[in-house]
Amino acid sequence: MEENSLCEGSKSYHADAHIYEQFCAAEDKPGKVQAFLMELLKGKSVLDIGCGSGKYMALLAPSAARYVGLDISQEQIALAAGKSQGMGNVELICCSAEKIPLPDHSIDIVISTWGVSTILEPERRSRVLAEARRVLAPGGNIYLVENDYAGEFEYIRGRWPDASMTADYNNWLVQAGFTPVAHIATIFEFSSAPKAKHVFGAIWGAKAAERVQRKKITHNIVIFKSTS
């Protein structure tokens, strides 16, 4: 299990799922990612790879015809299930995205909000993308919401001014057939600076907590797109 990270084995996704939920609640406080995705999936069947605790599911599913949330963490799926009560168009699946239990060409839109990037091994990431393309209907699209360069968030987690890790991953996506279609400047907003320190420290360790100075943290996002 990876410590001091948000890789797929991080305890923040599993035993400390409540920490990740607090992190997600503060993320993109202005709702810019939601606004971007909302217009794309109205009336569509949607697969959310790495749905986590269901933040985007709760926001986006009411606009979709069908919404399938998939995550490898049982703890995250349990949190998402609590948010999906009463939503008849939501299905939740706990499994690896390397083998998605859905038929070929059955999904109109695939989204993943920082999901694929939690997988460290490029060959496994490639299998996830191949599965996403397999289930995608003709004319469908895949949208990956990922981290862009610079900003306080990258600095706090130790990826700025040396942006090589973020650059390597984003360049890998381009080589895998994805195109950046949006760059979004947004913020995390916590209830207080101590709360922000606590959450970032729990995920990335003491050095990250020391870098947090306020309750609002700038965050640069890039959205990638690939077609069927």
Number of strands: 7
Order of helical and strand elements: HHEHEHEEHEHHEHHE
Largest sheet: 7 strands, mixed
The low-confidence parts are: none
Helix count, DSSP H or I runs of 4 or more residues? 9
Helix content: 25-40%
Structural class: alpha/beta
Distance from N terminus to C terminus (CA atoms, Å) equals 34 Å
Radius of gyration using CA atoms only: 17 Å
Percentage of β-strand residues: 25-35%
Please state the overall shape, judged from the principal axes of the Cα atoms: globular
Largest sheet strand order: 3-2-1-4-5-7-6
Mean pLDDT value: 95
Give the key terms.
alpha/beta, seven-stranded mixed sheet, 9 helices, 228 residues
Can you put this structure into words, describing what you see?
The chain starts with 16 loop residues before the first helix and ends with a strand. The chain is of the alpha/beta class and 228 residues long. The protein is globular and about 45 Å long. 38% of the residues lie in helices and 25% in strands. Helix 1 crosses helix 8. The protein contains nine helices and seven strands. It has a seven-stranded mixed β-sheet with strand order 3-2-1-4-5-7-6, sandwiched between helices.
How is the secondary structure organized here?
Layout: H1 17-26, H2 32-41, E1 45-49, H3 55-60, E2 66-71, H4 74-83, E3 90-94, E4 107-113, H5 122-135, E5 136-147, H6 151-156, H7 164-175, E6 179-189, H8 193-204, H9 206-211, E7 216-227
Parallel strand pairs: 1-2, 1-4, 2-3, 4-5
Antiparallel strand pairs: 5-7, 6-7
Helix pairs in contact: 1-8
